[in-house]
# Entry
Amino acid sequence: MTKRIAIGFEGSANKLGIGIITEDGDILANVRDTFITPPGTGFLPRETALHHNQHLYRLTKLALEEAKLKPSDLTCLCYTKGPGIAMPLITVAVFVRTLAQMWKLPIIAVNHCVSHIEMGRLVTKSENPVVLYVSGGNTQVIAFAEGKYRIFGETIDIAVGNCFDRFARDIHLSNDPSPGYNIEQLAKKGSKYLALPYVVKGMDVSFSGLLSFLEKDLKKHLETGEYSKEDLCFSLQETVFAMLIEVTERAMAHVGATDALIVGGVGCNLRLQDMMSEMVTQRGGRICAMDDRYCIDNGAMIAQTGLLMYLSGVPPTPIEETIIRQRFRTDEVDVVWRKDENYDMQGEGM
Amino acid sequence: MSLSLKRSPIMEETAYPNVGTILGQGAEAIITVVAFNEGIAVKKVRPAKTYRLPQLDTKLRKSRTNQEYKCIQRAEKAGILVPKIYHISKPESSLTMEFIHGKAIRKVLIEYQHDYISQHPSIIQTSKQSTLAPQPADPYELTPTEPQNDEPDIQVDDNQFSTAQSSDDVQHPLPNTPPLQTEDEDIVHSRLVIALDDQIKHIAEELGTILAKLHDANVIHGDLTTSNMILTPSNQICLIDFGLSYASADIEDKAVDLHLLRRACTSTHPALLSFYDLTLQTYASKSVNSTSVLKRLEVVELRGRKRSMAG
# Structure
């Protein structure tokens, strides 16, 4: 029997990614184009959708060429159903609908967050980690229990990446390659710590108050030279990451897990990876930091998850149901492809 | 208000633990038994977290230890039995406090539940027959209005405190697993409703009174589970572990506090949800603000943002 191959389309935010993967997990192609806006600005829904629209055809062709495949070699088409920004999501979904009818292939609608986790498990070979999912739109601490990826803790307002992006905009950092990357580089040169609001409520975190606090005295700090941009980036990173590691550790203690996996764009940050590694090593576990190429939104992870779903018998999504959902929660998906593993939820007496 | 105990199951665990025994270790603190004044005490230390910036780490550990100390004091002033604080060390971020004798209420309830079932084996049978709940037609279906509470409330016992079973414990079997054969004891228990005896009823009433006092003193416990309540040999309830406590007069905070207790009850001794109901009923009659808190509690439970999450 020939290997089954899926193509995945991701466009939930400012990155358009198309990836092709086999059932053995070999990534045959994973191409991407990022919509980058000038410093001091962010990406807007309409413009982002337009960007995706302009590049969809070219990238699809490129992915097929890289993988040396014809459309007839594919088994199924996978696309991001959500969560994400509506207009970019719709653009991609409509394109996939069209392809499905031209190529006569089934469609699988995929949850973006779940696909980050599945790609992380595939790449790092970690079987049952507690997952810290940190990106521009999401901040969640997730563990697998009773057939679903359960959210143990999450942000109660803005996502960590959103907090970083907005601060980068405030201090006019470049959006190339990403605002978060540039904050990380500045933070390396900072050393003076400004105490920021540290908001952890049980396993939940909050960042909006912290951002307002930073913005309030930003001008004053920079003008008087009391704190440099570098110092502020340093303080921001140290505070926010300490909060994230703390809630991850709490979730690990709660479910009795030893391994931790970081996924999502902010997971590329080396300081976050170092802090996580220190915490996890002290607990006698292993950290599975992800490769940059997979941490960032991409098509291969959508293809990988869609193929897992397809092969485990999830029926393809009928064309009239290939809709998108901006708020498609991680814990709504029945993870039917993972049957064996389960945490003992009774252990902690909660 | 002392309970009349026939044979006290609580008295069995009166042996002192050895010095050095670790009573608990969470993400944040380690609790050990230490020698103190020819007796023993409990020491709770928040060790340094090397992953975070030292000045941030020191600040957090200090303020949390301090907050815990203050909340215990406030609770004590409100007339609630709490461990006495012997020593607080700010540099070390540790609290040394009284060792509380007795048995966690969680244990008391689980044993009661277990004994009741072994004395009334027929109850399981009845429950099995009557709990053939209809399964969702298509578990893969993910629509924006995914039903969360599609399980009917099944009552085996028409206990006056019987209540709707939370969907937290309900398992949706996958299509290839026949629902009945895979049902283990726990799931069956989660659908049972067990009547309370006088002793358990009394504990629930005591607890309701304590929680009313606590909230009227504007202390939010933050981690109300039945493991954090100790029934002492003199049949009083001692509240422990104020590690997540804070002061607040907000009805939302109080409602969430009670909601956490419900969640803890449904996951650890689900057949005794009437215990929670009686606790709440007593709380309602004793607390000054109970009307608005209970009204908010309904909203909190309906909100269900985290219904199906942490056990």
About this structure: The radius of gyration of chain A is 20 Å. Confidence is low (pLDDT under 50) at residues 341-350 of chain A.
